[in-house]
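tool_call: predict_structure(chain=1)
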Amino acid sequence: MSESNDKLIKKKEEWAREKRGLTPQAREEGISVRQNPTASQAERPRLPPGQHRVKGFPVLDLGIQPEVGLEKWSLDVQGLVENPVTWDWQDFMAQPQITLISDFHCVTTWSTFDNRWQGVSFKHLLSVIRPKPEANHVLFTSHDGYSTNVPLSVLNDDDVLIAHRWNDEPLTREHGGPVRMIVPKLYAWKGAKWVKGMNFLPQDRPGYWEVRGYSNTADPWTEDRYA
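tool_result:
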């Protein structure tokens, strides 16, 4: 790891220790802000507490932006599934393609609205691989050495996308291209960039930031930023 990467990671770990970005209410309570945890998504405020809206699309990563050519890219889906698959780019693009518009919330307190994503629905992937009943979590791995964990119950929804285009353009390298995950209901670190693998597991297995002080569940509307 380079010195610059090491400094970036230590800074993010410092943010977790200091609970950076929490609203005064959350700091006073010492817990996530539970304004109305039973409210439907439609009833929640569009901008989660502690967030501010920005224009454009800031870039955050581990200090590494791997160059992944389409001729070498593949997606390996393994674990507790009936039909493991390894898709190359042609296989991936041969799947049904959809467009979704969603907001994007970074744990560092910025949000962007109305992002237009194109890609393969995660629900479609589930229909292909057929998870076994004992599969409860998915661990995503990336070409930069990153990993993150998400419950299968969260991923099995209409708004979760394996995306290769943003705002009608191919997803650029700095934003995780050629392919990244989009999970709008969670803070953005749960949407792995440069994704290359998915492992369906019977139990939770914390990922890169989850073992460095960040929340396992990452709900923006309850300020669930840190462990």
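agent: DSSP finds five helices and eleven strands in the chain. Proceeding to next step.
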